[in-house]
Design goal:
three-stranded antiparallel sheet, 3 domains, four-stranded antiparallel sheet, 7 strands, 4 helices
Length: about 160
C-alpha cells in the first residue's frame, strides 16, 4: 500500500491514506494491514495552528498531560493533551510578536516552569504550576472576588458566591 511509504516522512498522510484504502475496500488484506500499520506508529495528531498560521516550537510536559506551543504571533498556548483543548488565555511573550515570533518552548523537569525562546534570543521563564489553593490564587491575582458575570464565564458549574475576603 502507498500509505506505508509515508509512515516515517508524513505519518498523518500515511494514516489518511490507510483509512481511505480500508474504507474503499475493507475486505482487502493489504488495506487492513496498512491500517493496522498506521495504528502501530507512535501517537500523532493534527494541531490546528491558531497562532498566526505557524507553530515554531512545541513541548510536552514531563508527565505528558500538557502541550505548549510557540507561535509566530509571539504567544504560547497550553493545551490539555487528553482533550486537546486550550487551557486559559495564551501567554503573550514581550517583544516576540512582530519580530519573528517565538523560537521554541521547553518545560522544566518537574513541569512547573516553562521556558520560552524569542526570535531575538531572549529566554524567559513562566510559572505554569497549578496553584495548590485555587481560590487563594484567584483572589491574589484579581485582588477581589469575581463579579457575577465573571463567575458565569469562569465557574459555570457552581452557584455564584463571594470567595475573597
Amino acid at each position: 500500500m502507498q500509505s506505508e511509504t509515508f509512515d516515517t516522512t508524513d505519518p498523518v498522510a500515511a494514516s489518511l491514506l490507510a483509512a481511505a484504502a480500508w474504507r474503499i475496500d475493507p475486505g482487502n488484506p493489504l488495506a487492513r494491514e496498512s491500517l493496522l500499520d498506521a495504528y502501530a506508529q507512535p501517537d500523532h495528531a493534527v494541531l490546528n495552528a491558531d497562532s498566526g498560521g505557524r507553530v515554531y516550537g512545541a513541548a510536552f510536559s514531563p508527565d505528558g498531560t500538557l502541550l505548549a506551543t510557540a507561535g509566530a504571533d509571539g504567544k504560547v498556548r497550553l493545551r490539555d493533551v487528553a482533550t486537546r483543548s486550550q487551557i486559559g488565555a495564551p501567554i503573550t511573550v514581550p517583544g516576540s510578536a512582530g519580530g519573528g515570533g517565538l523560537g521554541g518552548v521547553a518545560f522544566s523537569p518537574d513541569g512547573k516552569v516553562l521556558a520560552t525562546a524569542g526570535s531575538d534570543g531572549t529566554v524567559l521563564r513562566w510559572d505554569v504550576a497549578f496553584p495548590g489553593n485555587l481560590l487563594d490564587a484567584v483572589c491574589a491575582i484579581a485582588g477581589r472576588s469575581l463579579t457575577r458575570q465573571e463567575w458565569s464565564v469562569y465557574v459555570q458549574s457552581e452557584p455564584f458566591q463571594q470567595v475573597c475576603p
